[in-house]
Amino acid sequence: MSSTVAKAKGFKHSKPGLWLSIGTSAFGAVSIVKDVKKARLEQDTLKLINAVVGAVALVTGTALLVRELRQLGDDDVLLG
Q1: Using an 8 Å Cβ cutoff, are 58 and 28 in contact?
Q2: In which region does residue 44 sit, left (phi positive, over 0), alpha (psi from -120 to 50) or beta (all else)?
Q3: Which of 29, 15, 23, 34 is nearest to 76 (CA)?
Q4: How many beta carbons lie within 10 A of that of residue 51, not counting itself?
Q5: Between the N and C ends of the chain, which has fewer C-beta atoms within 10 Å?
Q6: Do the Cβ atoms of 38 and 50 come closer than 8 Å?
Q7: In angstroms, rounded to a whole number, what is the distance separating the alpha carbons of residues 53 and 67?
Q8: What tens-digit pLDDT sequence spans the chain (80 residues)?
């Protein structure tokens, strides 16, 4: 069982795992857009601030994933 856990942890830092995480972030962006529209429609400043902070976190997280993906590519012997 521990080898299964190790494989799962390794997948998170593999190229397919990183691409999957980036794709998941894209779905999160759809939710944030809906939240922003709803907050503006209701003229709820607090909900709007919450959606904007969520968007900033999503952008930062995606940027970190892209950086890790690029570093993985730099370390690839076949690319060099």
Answers
A1: yes
A2: beta
A3: 15
A4: 21
A5: N
A6: no
A7: 21
A8: 566 656 656 676 788 888 999 999 999 999 999 999 999 999 999 999 999 999 999 999 999 999 998 988 765 544 44
DSSP state string for 8-36? HHHHHTSHHHHHHHHHHHHHHHHHHHHHH
- Give the pTM: 0.71
Structure-block tokens of residue 12: 């998170």
* CA pair distance 42, 25, nearest whole angstrom: 26
Crossing angle for the helix pair 15-42 and 2-12, nearest 10 degrees?
A: 60
> Nearest CA to 22 among 47, 59, 52, 50?
59
Residues in the chain, overall count: 80
- To 10 degrees, the CA torsion angle through 32, 33, 37, 43? 40
